[in-house]
Amino acid sequence: MAELYMPIGIESIEPEHFPDVALYLKCGNNFVLYKNNGRNFNKQDAERLLENSVDFLYVSPADLEVITEYMENNAEQLLKSDTFDCKTKGKIIYQTSINFMGDIFEHPEKVGDFERSKRLIENLLHYLSDNNEAISSLETVMAHNYYTFVHCLQVATISILLHSEAYCLSHDEMVDVAIGTLLHDFGKIFVSQDILNKTGKLTESEIAQLKRHPEEGYKYLKEKTCLSDVTLSIVRYHHERNNGNGYPLGLKGESIPRSAQVGAICDVYCTLSIDRSGRKALPPHISLLVMKQEMKGAFNERLLGILETLVCVEEAPTIL
């Protein structure tokens, strides 16, 4: 992933503690140096940028590792602080998760660090349980380069809420399903970037390659990590369909693990409701209508009904 500059929310840059790295502004498709390393970023810088409606600065790929470590080590403290409002905490969760996803997609061998994944999920669970407006406050950077990472975070967020409403899960089970949905598209590291970034219609050969990603992701994670069977089932079966028309195995109905059924629903809903190159996001009620009518029979109707109560109202429920 060449030149994958990552966003950093202005509110999260603490002048006294933030790593000494170069910071960039995004101008169109280009990144312009705002602050070189060696020059402090101060409160006046933050205030001036926010006054000019600049919410994010960016760090270069060369500095991504140090920024990712900083964000993950400080996220819990920032989320518990009374200094930040719900919207700002949403940005912190967003960028921590995006940086995490960028790191493991670039360095797949790091995905085996379960404690790191668990720490990120624990912060996400805390944020969702502590904020009634969590979904609307989780801001995203709608740039094409970040699509897969943004999508994975959205799927994990909706899946956590849907699981909490549909089933009585223990905390450890919730962590497992959250990690599974966050990593559901991990197998895309084995798919050509040309295919993933193609804006036109895929050929039959390209579709066949893309459809291998659930099985490839599952095999890698099963061999290289100690993730639970629940987590792995979401990665492997999130493209299975209730009517048997899915892949890779064509499972049907109750033969699809329940958390994979939830993951499948959230995956499709989030695909419809996020901007992509060449296609605008659909409103929640239209996305649900498409899933119910144009994809009739593909999903568990009870779970679809619960999803509708979650996303088609202004106030989201809290997790008990």
Order of helices and strands: EEEHEHHHHHHHHHHHHH
Structural class per helix/strand content?
mainly alpha
Total DSSP helices: 14
Biggest sheet features: 2 strands, antiparallel
Instruction: Write out the CATH superfamily name of the domain at 140-311.
Output: Hypothetical protein af1432
The value of Rg in angstroms is 19 Å
CATH class of the domain at 140-311: Mainly Alpha
Q: Give the % helix.
A: 40-55%
Q: What overall form do the CA principal axes indicate? A: globular
CATH topology group of the domain at 140-311? Hypothetical protein af1432
How many angstroms separate the termini?
Answer: 39 Å
Strand residues, percent: 5-15%
Low-pLDDT segments: 139-145, 315-320
The mean pLDDT is 85
CATH architecture identity of the domain at 140-311: Orthogonal Bundle
> Which strands sit side by side, in order, in the main sheet?
1-4
What would you say this structure looks like, in words?
The structure is a single chain. The protein is mainly alpha-helical. Strand 2 and strand 3 (30-35) form a beta hairpin. The radius of gyration is 19 Å and the shape is globular. The chain starts with 5 loop residues before the first strand and ends in a 9-residue tail after the last helix. Mean pLDDT is 85; it is low at 139-145 and 315-320. It contains 14 helices and four strands. The chain has a domain at 140-311: Hypothetical protein af1432. The strands form two sheets. Strands 1-4 form a two-stranded antiparallel sheet. It has a two-stranded antiparallel ribbon with strand order 2-3. The longest helix is centred in the first third of the chain and has 21 residues, at 86-106.
